[in-house]
Amino acid sequence: MKPWDGTQIIKPVVDSGISQWTTMAEDWEGQSERLVAAVVEALAAAPWGGGAEGEAFRTSHFQGDGPNRMLNQCVDLSRQITDACGRLRASIDNTLGTDADIESDLKAREAKAREARA
């Protein structure tokens, strides 16, 4: 027996969960954009100073694209989380449609088999 045997997708429950996910994801995406902008602004201010120690810190801090890479990944991940909502909803709708088509096909085959026996 597979772990998902007998599993049912209850559309209203799924829709409610995806709606909550969408709201959370959109809120987070907006908040993360503001946070990223604040960090970019702070980095642009170069608070480490212009002396030799400050330059050493800046070189080390930005090595391998440092915080810029992390900030870009944060923005990309936030978008992916938001975009996943629509993909998940479409996937569930496709699954339910396929299940309905299979059920309809099985009923038609059963009816045809009964007719052939009669």
- SSE string, helix = H, strand = E? HHH
Helical region count?
3
Number of strands: 0
Major sheet description: none
Characterise this structure:
By secondary structure, the protein is an all-alpha fold. The chain has helices at residues 11-44, 52-61, 66-117. The chain is 81% helix and 0% strand. α1 packs antiparallel against α3 (66-117). It is rod-shaped and about 95 Å long.
Q: How is the topology of this model organized?
A:
Blueprint: H1 11-44, H2 52-61, H3 66-117
Helix pairs in contact: 1-3
Brief description of this entry?
The protein has 118 residues and is mostly helical.
Protein traits:
single chain, 118 residues, 0% strand
